[in-house]
Amino acid sequence: MKKIILFSAVLIQLCGIVVAQNTTEQKSTKSISVAGGVNYAKYYNKNSYDDSYLTVSNKPRMNFELQFTSMFSESVGFSVGLVYNQYYMQSACRGFYKTKETYADYYGDLYHKGYMAQYTETVKFNAVEFPLLFNFKLGKGKTKLNFDLGLIPGASVGAKVYGEGELKKIGYYPTNYQDVYISVENDPYYDWGTVTKSRTTDLEVQKLFLSYGGGIGFTSDVTESFFVKVRLFYTKSISDVTAKDQRDKQYANLLEEKTSYQKSSLKGAGLNIGFGIHLQ
Predict the structure, then answer these.
(1) Residue 50, SS3?
(2) Does the N-terminal or the C-terminal CB of the chain have fewer CB atoms within 10 Å?
(3) CA distance linking residue 184 with residue 36, whole number of Å
């Protein structure tokens, strides 16, 4: 809540500064535009990124935007939008891993937990978002520099987790020789053996969430009624997007490194290119 109040105060102050500097009265203008591009839309869970056994990656996704803008003056306006995004996170665990800690077996002998892993897990979070942005335009002529700031309510339209791979658990016993170990496999008493893991499951998430964001770019009038635009943007959700404690679903805790629940958030950064028309 403190972040929202502070963010709103900054927006109001910016509006006041720009309006005060704008001495030329302008007729209110409205426009509608469409845009699309790439968004590095990241589903972020701190456990996954901090897990020393996981390699977490992201890749650009396509996003699409419809926006209506009303300019109160030459420099200040407000826009509402409709945006589709797919937030993404892939966690991979591949190779041999050995715990630093040792454990005592039934006979009191010490061993390390060893793992041979070939596992990949992907989270896909689909969302429709409604940016509510203050717009600021700088410059004269056909081409203007734009920047915007605001809050972005959003709604989840489905989230899934896809996992596929294999995990072999091994007892790894040290010997009197440095870097020489005896491995013990296929002992059901200690749950040592090979397990095939495969799952496709729904991720329970908040139906509604709130983000903040902004962007910078330019618009250029091609004709009196038609314009093109380019915009770089960044967004981040404010609160946890998971509905409840979903540690076993949202985080590939394959080697049991983390036990505490961590919040998940949505982050996005990308580039949109589009066009629009002036309505008046």
Answers:
(1) helix
(2) N
(3) 54
Q: For the stretch 126-136, what's the b/e string if a residue is b when 16 or more beta carbons lie within 10 angstroms of its beta carbon?
A: ebebebebbbb
Q: How many domains does the chain have?
A: 1
Burial (CB < 10 A; 0-12, 13-18, 19+), residue 96, is exposed
Instruction: Write the DSSP symbol of residue 254.
Output: T
One pLDDT digit (tens) per residue for the chain, 280 residues: 455 444 444 444 444 444 444 434 444 589 999 999 999 999 998 888 887 778 888 888 999 999 999 999 889 999 999 999 999 999 888 888 888 889 998 888 999 988 888 989 899 999 999 999 999 999 888 999 999 999 999 999 989 989 899 988 899 899 888 888 888 888 888 888 888 888 888 888 889 999 999 999 999 999 989 999 999 999 999 988 887 656 556 566 666 666 566 788 999 999 999 999 999 7
* Cβ pair 71, 28 in contact under 8 A: yes
How many Cβ atoms sit within 10 Å of the Cβ of residue 195? 11
DSSP-derived pairing of the beta strands 103-104 and 55-57: unpaired
Which residue in 99, 159, 171, 97 sits closest to 128, CA to CA? 159
Which domain does 216 fall in, by range?
2-278
What CATH number is given to the structural domain containing 240? 2.40.160.20
For residue 108, with 0-12 CB atoms within 10 Å meaning exposed, 13-18 middle and 19 or more buried, which class applies?
Answer: exposed
